[in-house]
Structure to design on (127 residues):
């Protein structure tokens, strides 16, 4: 049985026959590949870009969650933290903590929520 698998390059090449010269075709292919990288959650850093990805992809990309909270429906909430010191003009240095939560159900990321604390006070929430 013949192999029906095509490389991404050959697949794109077959759909770009009208682009000439060959250098232009290579430029278009490079731009398409770069656009694909930009939409990756690892490239964008946006929590919302993980929605729809598998829990395993999230774990591979961000590592083990700092905390896992079971839900009654069988799902889980995975929490990730980052913290450090911030400095703003006309302010003393302060401490921050970012808490990002991902809802995992049926092996997929279904929802996200983020909170930012500065000096122990919530200054931003988003979902």
């Amino acid at each position: 049985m013949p192999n029906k698998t095509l490389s991404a390059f050959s697949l794109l090449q077959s759909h770009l026959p009208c682009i000439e010269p060959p250098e232009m075709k290579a430029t278009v292919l490079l731009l398409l590949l770069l656009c694909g990288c930009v939409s990756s959650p690892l490239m964008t850093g946006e929590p919302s870009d993980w929605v729809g990805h598998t829990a395993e992809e999230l774990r591979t990309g961000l590592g083990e969650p700092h905390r896992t909270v079971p839900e009654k429906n069988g799902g889980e909430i995975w929490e990730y933290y980052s913290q450090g010191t911030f400095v703003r003009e006309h302010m003393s240095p302060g401490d921050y903590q970012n808490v990002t939560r991902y809802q995992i159900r049926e092996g997929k990321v279904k929802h996200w929520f983020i909170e930012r604390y500065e000096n122990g006070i919530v200054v931003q929430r988003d979902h």
User: Anything to note?
Assistant: The chain has two domains: 8-38, 47-126. Residues 1-9 have pLDDT under 50 and may be disordered. The beta strands are 67-70, 76-86, 94-105, 108-118, 121-126. The CA atoms of residues 58 and 111 lie 12 Å apart.
